[in-house]
From TrEMBL:
BP term (GO), one: translation
Gene3D superfamilies reported in the protein's UniProt record: Nucleic acid-binding proteins, RuvA domain 2-like, Tex N-terminal region-like, Tex RuvX-like domain-like, YqgF/RNase H-like domain
Span of domain S1 motif: 676-772
Membrane spanning stretches: none
Ranges annotated as biased composition (Polar residues): 716-733, 779-788
Example GO molecular function: structural constituent of ribosome
Pfam families listed in its UniProt record: HHH_3, HHH_9, S1, Tex_N, Tex_YqgF
InterPro entries: HHH_9, NA-bd_OB-fold, Ribos_protein_bS1-like, RNaseH-like_sf, RuvA_2-like, S1_domain, Tex-like_dom_sf, Tex-like_HTH_dom_sf
Name of the molecule in the record: S1 motif domain-containing protein
Record SMART domains: S1
Stretches for region Disordered: 711-740, 769-788
Length: 788
């Protein structure tokens, strides 16, 4: 999507805008935050900033830049909201002092919830609080005098509405309590308590809605209840509750099964409260103690409880989006398998199958039955697969098996065919597991129907999608809406709009930073390139169809809708290989039809066209060619300027792609596993509680997240019988805060793991794994340990 420069309203908040960014991204210094904000205002996208503006951000990851941009956009929205709220509320207030007080409170707001609180208090028709009633009775000035250490004679305040000193005292107590709670220092301490969750406990109780109670005996409701039975009734310190637990508790609340709340002790809160030692007039001390306690119980504690719950929920949502985003990002970063024919299988009682050329072109599609007794395919299915095996002209085959329901049975059936030599002997056949999340969603899209036609069974299209995910992962995954890719932790509990928006940004960044060939990329890929959108992507494809291949990056400017800003943002992520015309000796340089500059060897690199002049002078200075530098020739950085060093870095920059899925020839059963055996597996998901690894059996094993925390790597040793065992003196602390994701393997990574335990249970067996120290990759194995 093309981003235009943002137009901000006049800044009215007390905090400068960079403070909001610095609060979220602590790695930034103030000057770098201001530099980033300037780029955001210009409409620059994350990928462009990450690659080409390192001098501004100092080497931040795309994820941190996205976080900074989210903070910037939230601050702009907050400022706009405060500005409009000031106009709306103060226009209806009469007193000048009250207008000023409300305006100051709004300008001091840190988030939208603070604005909402003020709005509820002063908006027309808002609930008449005791404090506001006291204000209307004219008690605010004497209340402020009490807080300033002066004496106030309550008897002098008796009126027709307040007939006794007792009436005055009760009204005054409510107003003083309210003023205490609105004090800026009190709010500041409250925010600190909310973030640290010191002295906070979280309690979970059962909560059965009328609908649940009515259906308590149904199997579906019993299953829901069973999911939360272990947490009902427990109390924990809030700061030790990890984000995935908060997400699960929110899901339980939505299902009407549980409720969870945050609890504070009034005594603990008083010890942290700024007014604990407030000095007031001697004659007002007894009254002040009552007002202070009333403020703690009525305002401060409930505010903290709401704040902590809101903070935990927000943090868990952000964490879920981060984990999900990283996992999705890794799917796009996997290398494709381009040298083999692909048989793709979408498992189930009816197996959907597709036979694809190495390019991804569909040769055939079909479906057949699966027999769970074998497990094996029916005779027709075996004949279809054997027949496809004869059509590869001697090229090898890889069978891509979707990881959905019955994936293990399908893998077993393929393994039997390989072991029984049902395929031609002259070709090598292996199989692997491919994520199938979202394949069925894509099958129903207009794009799928446009490619395959209205008459094709949409169930068969999902098999094609599975196969193409192995051949060209990024090109296929980009067709699926990111929220349907199914990786992460409790992401379905998150606001769908928020999740979708953030993941679209993740996808755009990843596609851009990997880069695509301008002459080969599909429209779906192009629309996810920084600076482009669906309209400009379609125009690029249309231009290719009408004019032929692009001869240079500069020719992009001829495409309708691509102006200077779009070209600046997108051109560095679109490569153009050497035109055929330049292979002819008579033609040294190709000119595009309108005279735009011709092809440059820099068009194949990540160097931005804006820097071609500097790059060519540098290459001449080094007496090297572009091809030599790109191939990794050692370049001395002596006497190079920072800008020249950045050019060298861009010339040698290559996307960090992960290897394809593990190729296997045989599966193993869970019953055959032994404790302390070593496997090479593929990470299928990462969460804040564990890393799930496919080691080629019926289900994934899990490595507890504690194994990946800094300084908590569990050491490995050899026992007397030469089996690999963990040392007993592990230093893992399972109550640590969130794990550091830098040490956690990503989706698609191939990892060495050791079986720590096989846990039998009523809900099925579980495989507990632990990481093995890195060793050289073995070259061959017939089992699903993943060694080639």
């Amino acid at each position: 999507m093309k981003r235009s420069a943002l137009i901000e309203k006049e800044w009215v908040l007390h905090k400068p805008i960079e403070d909001f960014v610095l609060k979220e991204v602590r790695e930034l210094a103030s000057n770098r935050a201001r530099g980033l904000i300037a780029l955001f205002k210009q409409g620059c996208e994350t990928a462009y900033i990450a690659r080409y503006k390192e001098s501004v951000h100092g080497g931040l990851s795309p994820e941190k830049i996205r976080k900074a941009k989210d903070a910037y956009l939230a601050a702009v929205h907050l400022n706009s909201k405060v500005d409009s709220t000031i106009t709306a509320i103060t226009g209806k207030l009469v007193g000048l002092d009250e207008k000023r007080a409300v305006t100051e409170r709004l300008k001091a707001c840190d988030d939208i919830e603070d604005v909402s609180d003020v709005t509820k208090e002063f908006a027309p028709g808002s609930r008449r609080t005791k404090a506001n009633i006291a204000r209307d009775l004219g008690l605010e000035v004497p209340a402020l005098k009490i807080l300033n250490g002066e004496f106030v004679d309550f008897s002098s305040l008796i009126t027709r509405e307040m007939k006794t000193v007792r009436d005055v005292e009760e009204n005054m107590k409510a107003l003083v309590a309210d003023l205490i709670n609105k004090d800026r220092e009190v709010r500041k301490v409250a925010l600190q308590i909310v973030k640290l969750q010191s002295k906070v406990r979280m309690t979970v109780t059962s909560k059965l809605t009328r609908e649940v109670e009515k259906n308590i005996e149904t199997e579906a409701v019993k299953k829901v209840l069973e999911r939360y039975r272990d947490v009902i009734g427990w109390t924990r310190p809030a700061y030790r509750i990890m984000s995935h637990t908060v997400s699960a508790l929110n899901r339980g609340s939505e299902e009407g099964v549980i409720t969870w709340k945050v609890q504070f002790s009034s005594d603990d809160v008083k010890r942290m409260h700024p007014f604990q030692y407030k000095m007031v007039h001697t004659s007002m001390q007894n009254f002040f103690k009552k007002a202070y306690s009333y403020s703690i119980d009525t305002y401060f504690v409930p505010m903290l409880e709401r704040g902590v719950k809101r903070f935990l929920t927000k943090s868990s949502e952000e964490r879920s989006i981060t984990v999900f985003g990283r996992n999705v990002e890794q799917l796009f970063s996997q290398k494709g398998v381009h040298s083999k024919y692909v048989i793709a299988l979408d498992p189930g009682s009816i197996v959907k199958a597709a036979f694809l050329e190495p390019s991804g072109k569909v040769i055939d599609m079909d479906q057949f039955s699966f027999s769970f007794r074998g497990p094996t395919f029916d005779s027709r299915g075996i004949e279809i697969l054997k027949n496809w095996g004869t059509q590869t002209m001697g090229k090898d085959i890889v069978v891509a098996v979707g990881n959905g329901s019955n994936t293990y049975g399908t893998q077993t059936a393929v393994s039997k065919m390989i072991q029984n030599e049902e395929f031609p002997k002259e070709i090598d056949v292996c199989f692997c597991v491919v994520p199938e999340h979202g394949a069925s969603k894509y099958s129903c899209t207009d794009a799928a129907r446009e490619e395959f036609g209205e008459d094709v069974d949409i169930k068969l299209i999902s098999a094609v999608s599975i196969g193409r995910r192995l051949i060209d992962p990024m090109s296929e995954y980009v067709k699926i809406e990111p929220q349907h890719l199914g990786k992460g932790q409790y992401q379905l509990s998150i606001n769908e709009k928020s999740l979708k928006g953030k993941l679209v940004d993740v996808v755009r960044d990843r596609v851009s930073l990997i880069g695509v060939d301008l002459n080969l990329a599909s429209e779906a890929l192009l629309r996810n390139i920084c600076g482009l959108n669906s309209t400009t992507a379609a125009e690029i494809v249309k231009y290719r169809m009408q004019k032929g291949r692009f001869k240079s990056r500069g020719e992009l400017k001829n495409v309708k809708g691509i102006g200077d800003v779009s070209f600046q943002q997108c051109s560095g992520f679109l490569t153009v290989s050497r035109p055929d015309e330049l292979d002819q000796p008579a033609k040294k340089r190709f000119k595009t039809p309108d005279g735009e500059g011709g092809w440059s060897p820099l068009d194949t690199t990540t160097v931005h066209p804006d820097h071609y002049g500097i790059a060519m002078k540098l290459i001449s200075k080094l007496n090297l060619t572009v091809e030599q530098i790109v191939s990794g020739t050692d370049v001395s950085f002596t006497n190079l300027t920072p800008e020249e060093e950045e050019i060298i870095k861009l010339l040698q920059d290559k996307p960090d792609l992960k290897p394809p899925p593990v190729m296997m020839k045989q599966v193993r059963a869970l019953k055959d596993l032994r404790v302390y055996e070593t496997f090479r597996g593929t990470v299928t998901n990462t969460t804040d509680f564990g890393v799930f690894v496919d080691i080629g059996v019926e289900k994934d094993g899990m490595v507890h997240i504690s194994h990946y925390r800094k300084n908590d790597k569990q050491p490995i040793t050899k026992s007397s019988n030469n089996k690999t065992e963990p040392k007993s003196n592990t230093f893992v602390n399972k109550n640590d805060p969130e794990a550091d994701l830098e040490n956690v393997p990503s989706v698609g990574d191939q990892v060495e793991v050791i079986i720590q335990a096989i846990i039998r249970g009523n809900k099925g067996d579980r495989i507990s794994l632990m990481p093995k120290q890195a060793e050289p990759e073995p070259q061959c194995s017939s089992f699903a340990s993943g060694n080639r």
